[in-house]
Design brief:
The structure holds 3 protein chains of 3 kinds.
Chain A (H helix, E strand, L loop, with lengths): L16 H6 L2 H19 L6 H7 L4 H15 L7 H17 L4 H25 L4 H20 L4 E2 L7 H4 L1 E3 L2 E2 H19 L1 H11 L1 H6 L4 H27 L1 E2 L7 H11 L11 H20 L4 H29 L1
Antiparallel strand pairs in A: 1-4, 2-3
Chain B lengths: L8 E10 L2 E11 L4 E5 L6 H8 L7 E6 L2 E2 L5 H6 L2 E4 L11 H6 L13 H14 L15 H14 L4 E5 L7 H16 L3 E5 L3 H7 L2 E6 L2 E7 L5 H9 L17 E9 L7 E6 L3 E6 L5 H8 L7 E6 L2 E2 L5 H7 L1 E4 L3 H5 L6 H6 L3 H4 L7 H14 L16 H13 L5 E5 L7 H16 L3 E5 L3 H7 L2 E6 L2 E7 L5 H9 L6
Parallel strand pairs in B: 3-8, 3-9, 6-7, 7-8, 13-18, 13-19, 16-17, 17-18
Antiparallel strand pairs in B: 1-2, 1-4, 4-5, 9-10, 11-12, 11-14, 14-15, 19-20
Helix pairs in contact in B: 4-5, 14-15
Chain C lengths: L3 H19 L6 H26 L7 H18 L5 H25 L4 H20 L11 H5 L4 E2 L2 E2 H19 L1 H11 L1 H6 L4 H27 L10 H11 L11 H20 L6 H21 L15
Antiparallel strand pairs in C: 1-2
Helix pairs in contact in C: 1-12, 2-7, 2-8, 2-10, 2-11, 2-12, 3-4, 3-5, 3-10, 4-5, 4-10, 7-8, 8-10, 11-12, 11-13, 12-13
The chains are: A mainly alpha, B alpha/beta, C mainly alpha.
Chain lengths: 332, 502, 322
């Protein structure tokens, strides 16, 4: 094959990766995180205590685990609103195993397995039947939690074995909790999967332009199914941690969690329309949310008021750049 | 100024720029009452942009639009309609879920008491208009149950439902059969008699000479010339249109056709195509000609596993291959470069190099982990071969011009090293420079032993590039032509279904 | 092809017949009227949601809007017990419309996806109730008799609440089928690209849909608080899901452009009948959530099968001709 005589070499990159990274959403978020950290340390003398900070991580680790998988799912162009209900169903299943006298390993496996099954159910409905994920998961949101209500009604499972408490109450070293360690490990794995593998490339392609991705040989359906499985599995894992931390299962466990998970993902710079976003962004966003919640908590602000802050954050981070852009275009 | 020419509608110095492309550069155009003005130009000359400016979809960056000498602005589609400009658009911009009557009258339905829509009057008037253009369509039918030709008739009816002074027809006959075309010509004569100014856009020269009174020629977004049809011949028009004579455009090449590579037998689909059978040889360029909506694209997509045929066999090198997904088609060595680059070809918000390597990731990666250096190397190799103009390989494809986006898509498919490449309208909507490059490249590929299927609706391209041509009409193969049988007349006849008799 | 509405009607009748075998009193006209009235808030909200979904958006803030407007009405009534009901109604509709317009503006002017906007406003509206009320309840004894009595007043055997639902059903049915704006909702969702060519402003149409949905939510806010004679932060918590469920069961396509008033009403009634029947036939009300979840999944799967296109129609024999 002859190269076209006029063929010119297009440079690989214009800007260096470092200068790109500095201008990114992630750096902005990191600045916000630092600012909140400093503001918190001024606002409350208790904030900088390592044990307090360690406690603060409980505010976000469980949600952040789910957010990792949810980020990939949203980048691929789908969404799963049933995650909090999967947490409830997995917790209920673990409660049943506990009542039947099984030990901690079986209980944990049941939690993870339930998450996988729920994720597979969502994934099959979306990828096999071609149904819109938002409707499917609004449906399974009711169905999964509904099953928990059928099993539990207004009662609760309590009396989990002491060894089970390790996941939600244990420490790896010093102030590093088991949950935080699990999350950190998962963040690295998800970062590599999304940014450094062919699978991750397929996730972006599927979310950007599913038709073109399919034409290019990306097995879009399979990619999305795997992501639903992962989201289910992470919800199961979060359920293990949350149930272990609380030591009990009620059917309302984790209610409303899906909103916070989606908020973290969107705050982390993932486009709700799919196609763009990064794991570092999601991790920092989880940190920001945790710090805000913890800081407000130290100031004795009630939880429901914190939800206003979360709502404003969610809309604000998307609206502000757009308003700024409009203002600039208008000035021109 | 434009006022003294007596034009109903006039454009002067109109400019429109899109990121990376100057679609219109100070063009002028005049439309006269009771006359048909043909707007002539190649794809990418700026014809569709003019139509969109005249119908309020785009706003011009500069220049003036006047009606009866008074300057006007069309900030919305409604404003254009109110000013008496109506259009039959090239793509049918209609609503699948609404009835035919509603599609015709959406936005200007007849009203009854309290401002409510008068459904009965709407149905009756829709039926009248449809009958007037010879369309036998029930106005209560839902649009999605209609064929493509019938949809075009509905679009024409919609344009006529507005009492307009200016009627724009953007390739109105592209999907119509010969009888429907004749009825449209009669309709154009009626509109002329009513004193309407008509802008007629068509690629078919016989058609332009049949109905147009005046012409205006655009090339690469610029005004080239205008005049009366009676004072010009086809050759002169073509010269104005392309800026050089036609036979120079297509690279001459020696046809060295080898053994059979692909054999397709009896491909059928319930609604899209029926009994498609053909063979393709090594080094051959096989043209697929037909009217818009003849089922060529639909068949190609089922060949690569997007849709499933109800019947049919594919053999590659004599072995039966089952292709149920594009991934399997790529494995089998068949790749498809779609017509709709934005939607099906390029991933606009991803970098150029990632677009190029997407179907070849298996080769550039190790154990499932991506290798940037390999990716850049592969992208560099193929974008260079195609003479891609871009700032950097990590720029998003969306920042490139149409022609360069097309090159990225072709580079992506060549990087797979396929045996059969299907190009669906490979030069639609790209500028002349890129077009010639694509044609030259196609010849080069065939000379290297690749088998090419080229779907095209442009007769010069089909004639200039193909070794053999299959003509499709309404989902079926109407003819297979080669050698002396391959003339513009035979192509049009078979595509429009006029039959064998000359 | 049988219409979705008739399938759904048949399902509801079959459901009623089944319930009647266990408890005949359920299908007595008086009880059916009570079931209808009980379902009225869901019907009203589902109709507003339907218009939003028609334009390819979704409004998850309706229940929070309802609760916030309801709380404002209740607190206003406590402060000014003499306020005429007509004024309260106007205020509720106006405030609801205003909250809906906030959603609409964010979607229209800033082009933020509606799911993000309404997830955000949902939590903001809910939180505002707490800020406004300080977490306190407004109880029956603090409300005036005319305030709580209005929706329960019985006219011709049906409470006003039920009549309001009927008026809204009729009004929306007329608006959606016979007005230019009504058809624009379908056009925008069916093909936004083509809508622009037809001179319809897509963003403005979506804004109007959100405002309408908000107005209906606000109206329901007053009716809800008055009917149950109590207002607190969490009223109608999670009700937005029931509303979306009613729409999905009623065959309104989440992809936009497809839906009918009849479908939305029947979808709401289906859920209403189940909710009212469970205690009667001796099934724990804890089953309701799972049943409605399962119903959503079955409905969306059924809709998708019915709507799946067979491909473009190119072959002459495949075309429908008169």
């Amino acid at each position: 094959m002859t190269a076209s005589p006029t063929g010119r070499i297009v440079p690989d990159r214009l800007a260096s990766p470092t200068s790109r990274a500095l201008k990114s959403w992630e750096s902005l978020l990191a600045l916000v995180a630092i600012a909140i950290f400093i503001a918190n340390s001024f606002a409350s003398p208790y904030f900088l205590d390592p044990w307090n900070l360690s406690d603060a991580t409980f505010n976000f680790t469980e949600k952040a685990m789910i957010a990792l998988a949810m980020a990939l799912l949203i980048i691929s162009g789908e969404i799963d609103l049933s995650v909090a209900s999967i947490v409830a169903l997995a917790s209920t299943a673990m409660g049943l195993m506990m009542q039947a006298g099984f030990g901690t390993p079986a209980i944990v496996l049941t939690g993870l397995g339930t998450g996988l099954i729920c994720g597979a159910f969502n994934g099959l409905l979306v990828t096999r039947l071609g149904l819109p994920s938002i409707v499917v998961t609004i449906g399974t949101m009711s169905l999964f939690r509904g099953i928990s209500y059928i099993v539990l009604g207004d009662t609760a499972f309590t009396g989990y074995p002491a060894s089970f408490g390790w996941f939600g109450q244990g420490y790896v070293v010093w102030v590093i909790t088991v949950e935080l360690a699990i999350f950190a490990l998962l963040a690295v794995i998800y970062g590599i999967v999304l940014h450094k593998t062919n699978f991750g490339r397929g996730v972006y392609a599927a979310g950007n332009n599913p038709t073109a991705a399919m034409f290019s040989g990306v097995r879009v359906g399979r990619v999305k199914f795997i992501l639903f499985l992962l989201t289910g599995l992470m919800s199961g894992l979060a359920s293990v941690c949350l149930t272990s931390r609380l030591g009990s299962t009620r059917p309302s466990i984790g209610a409303g969690m899906e909103l916070e998970v989606v908020t973290v993902v969107v705050l982390g710079g993932v486009s709700i329309l799919g196609g763009s976003g990064s794991i570092p962004g999601v991790v920092i966003a989880a940190l920001v949310m945790g710090l805000v919640t913890f800081g407000l908590g130290l100031l004795n602000v009630p939880g429901i008021v914190m939800s206003i802050v979360i709502g404003v954050l969610l809309i604000g981070v998307i609206a502000l750049p757009r308003i700024w852009q409009k203002a600039r275009a208008w000035k021109k | 100024m434009t006022t003294d020419t007596g034009a109903v509608l006039a454009l002067d110095g109109v400019t429109k720029t899109f990121p990376g492309v100057k679609a219109l550069d100070g063009v002028r155009l005049e439309l006269h009452a009771g006359e048909v003005t043909a707007l002539i130009g190649e794809n990418g000359a700026g014809k569709s942009t003019v139509v969109k400016i005249l119908t309020g979809i785009y706003q011009p960056d500069g220049g003036s639009i006047t009606i009866d000498g008074r300057p006007v602005r069309f900030p919305t589609a409604q404003a254009a309609a109110d000013a008496g400009v109506t259009a039959i658009h090239q793509e049918t911009v209609l609503f699948d879920e609404l009835s035919v009557a509603e599609n015709i009258f959406l936005g200007h339905a007849p009203r009854a008491r309290f401002g409510l829509i008068d459904r009965r009057a709407m149905m009756n008037r829709a039926r009248d208009i449809l009958t007037g253009i010879g369309a036998r369509i029930d106005p209560a039918t839902r649009l999605k149950d209609l064929s493509i030709a019938s949809r075009h008739l509905v679009a024409i009816a919609r344009a006529l439902s507005i009492d307009a002074r200016v009627v724009i027809m953007d390739e109105p006959t592209a999907a119509l059969s010969q009888t429907e075309i004749e009825e449209l010509y009669t309709l154009v004569d009626q509109l002329k008699a009513q004193g309407k100014a008509i802008l007629f856009i068509s690629h078919k020269f016989d058609e332009i000479f049949r109905i147009a009174d005046r012409f205006t020629v655009f090339r690469d977004g610029q005004f080239v010339g205008a005049g009366r049809m009676a004072e010009i011949d086809e050759a002169a028009l073509v010269r104005m249109m392309v800026g050089r004579s036609v036979d120079q455009i297509f690279p001459k090449r020696a046809a060295k056709v080898g053994d059979e590579v692909l054999r397709v037998q009896g491909y059928c689909h319930p609604t899209e195509f029926d009994d498609i059978t053909f063979t393709l040889r090594r080094g051959e360029i096989l043209g697929f000609y037909g009217l818009v909506g003849a089922g060529r694209t639909e068949f190609m997509q089922s060949l690569i596993g997007i849709t499933r045929p109800s019947k049919g066999v594919t053999r590659i090198d004599g072995t039966i291959r089952t292709i149920r997904s594009p991934a399997q088609a790529i494995e089998a060595g068949i790749v498809y470069v779609p017509e709709d680059r934005g939607k099906q070809g390029a991933i606009l918000d991803m970098p150029i190099f990632q677009n190029v390597t997407l179907p070849s990731l298996g080769r550039t990666s190790r154990a499932g982990f991506t290798r940037m250096a390999n990716e850049f190397a592969l992208a560099r190799e193929y974008t260079r071969r195609l003479d891609l103009r871009a700032a950097a390989l990590d720029a998003n494809v969306g920042t490139l011009s149409g022609g360069n986006q097309q090159k990225v898509v072709i580079a992506k498919w060549l990087a797979v090293k396929p045996r059969v490449i299907i190009l669906d309208e490979p030069t639609k909507g790209i500028d002349i420079g890129s077009k010639a490059a694509v044609h030259e490249f196609m010849s080069e590929l065939a000379a290297e032993g690749l088998s090419v299927i080229m779907v095209s609706s442009e007769i010069p391209e089909i004639l200039g590039m193909s070794d053999r041509v299959i003509v499709m009409r309404e989902g079926r193969i109407a003819a297979e032509l080669a050698g002396a049988d391959l003339t513009p007349e035979t192509l049009v006849r078979y595509a429009a279904g006029i039959g064998r008799a000359a | 092809m049988i219409s979705r509405e008739s399938i759904l009607s048949a399902a509801i009748i079959a459901l009623l017949a089944l319930i009647a075998t266990r408890f005949a009193g359920f299908v007595a006209p008086g009880n059916l009227a009570a079931v209808f009235t009980d379902t009225a808030p869901l019907i009203i909200l589902a109709l507003g949601q339907m218009v939003v979904i028609l334009t390819r958006c979704i409004d998850l803030s309706v229940a929070a809007n309802l609760a916030l407007t309801g709380m404002v009405c209740a607190m206003l009534n406590t402060a000014m017990p003499g306020l005429p009901v007509a004024l309260t109604l106007a205020l509720a509709i106006g405030m609801g419309a205003g909250l809906g317009a906030i959603n609409g503006l964010l979607v229209w002017k800033l082009a933020i996806p509606s799911i993000v906007v309404t997830l955000g406003t949902m939590t903001i509206f809910r939180g505002s109730i707490f800020l406004l009320s300080g977490g306190e309840w407004v109880n029956a004894f603090e409300m005036s008799a005319s305030f709580t009595g209005f929706p329960r007043t019985v006219i011709l055997g049906l409470p006003v609440l039920g009549w309001i639902a009927i008026v809204i059903i009729a009004g929306l049915a007329l608006m959606l089928s016979r007005s230019t704006q009504g058809r624009a909702f379908f056009a925008v969702g069916g093909n936004p690209h083509a809508a622009v060519y037809a001179g319809i402003d897509v963003g403005r149409t979506q804004f109007l849909a959100f405002t309408l949905s908000g107005a209906l939510a606000g109206l329901t806010g007053y009716l809800w608080v008055a009917r149950y004679a109590v207002a607190y932060t969490d009223i109608a918590g999670g009700f937005e899901l029931d509303v979306v469920a009613a729409c999905v069961i009623g065959g309104i396509s989440i992809a936009g452009g497809i839906g009918s008033v009849g479908g939305a009403v029947l979808g709401a009634l289906f859920l209403g009948v189940i909710k009212n029947a469970l205690p009667v036939v001796g099934i724990s009300p804890f089953w309701q959530m799972a049943i409605s979840g399962a119903a959503i999944i079955v409905a969306v799967a059924a809709n998708s099968r019915a709507g799946r296109s067979k491909g473009r129609i190119i072959l002459k024999q495949a075309e429908v001709r008169q």
